[in-house]
Design a protein that fits this description.
2 domains; two-stranded parallel sheet; binds zinc ion; mainly alpha
């Protein structure tokens, strides 16, 4: 079997690395304060997109009671509002999850930990459940409109929720313990995987065309917080 050609890239600069296990250097600060500051921008962007999503939901309700009424195109306007609502929820949730990778919640308070990590799910519910309920209970709506809009809204609710849930949240305590344990070590991760690796030749990395080499903090900030089952001892 041919060995796949792989490119190793420095996570901090994007430059190609010639030899793996090269010395890692830290240019960025990873104190809790510095990470919190970096996450704040992402959280603001997330909230802006979520506000836009709720605005689309409001527009949708205004089309239902015909405050907004565009003859012959009403159904298209309604579907458009639902689709934009969905897109804005999902984009907001991705920024929110990236912020939590960089600046995780403490697990000292489990309610707060859940709320911070699953805020995207909560927004998804807020953005679509009222729409689904109103569509199902509205007596004035004609049958055809209902038949089109109920499935669209239901699928949007499911998609938004699935893509907004943080399936693998890390706590601040875990972040610090992992960063401490692997201080100064070169770690490896890929463009799409959720894991970090210690062995550049790990079998789970063999099929990736680009492998990032960086510090453990760079991997954690990129959301690669799952220790590889093959090359990281736990
Ligand atoms: Zn591995």
């Amino acid at each position: 079997m041919a060995v796949k050609e792989r490119k190793f890239v420095k996570a901090s600069s994007g430059e190609a690395v010639k030899t793996t296990k090269s010395k890692t250097e830290e240019k960025v600060s990873y104190t809790k304060e510095a990470r919190h500051e970096r996450a704040t921008g992402k959280r603001i962007i997330a909230i802006v997109f979520w506000v836009l999503a709720i605005a689309c939901e409001v527009v949708f309700f205004l089309t239902l009671n015909k405050t907004i009424y565009i003859k012959n195109y009403q159904l298209y306007v309604q579907i458009g509002a639902l689709v934009l609502d969905l897109i804005f929820v999902i984009i907001g949730s991705q920024f929110w999850k990236r912020a939590n990778d960089v600046d995780p919640a403490s697990d000292a308070n489990s309610v707060k930990f859940f709320l911070q990590n699953q805020m995207g799910l909560i927004v998804s519910i807020l953005a679509f459940v009222p729409i689904v309920i109103v569509l199902l209970t509205n007596k004035d709506l004609d049958k055809k409109t209902k038949q089109v809009l109920v499935p669209v809204a239901a699928v949007a609710l499911v998609l938004a929720s699935l893509l907004s849930i943080d399936w693998n949240p890390i706590s601040e305590e875990e972040y610090q313990a992992t960063a401490q344990a692997l201080k100064g070590e070169a770690v490896y991760y890929t463009q799409f995987g959720k894991s970090y690796h210690l062995d550049p030749d790990c079998r789970a990395l063999k099929n990736s065309s680009v492998v990032y080499e960086g510090t453990i903090e760079e991997a954690l900030d990129a959301g690669r917080n799952d220790p590889c089952d093959f090359c990281v001892e736990q």
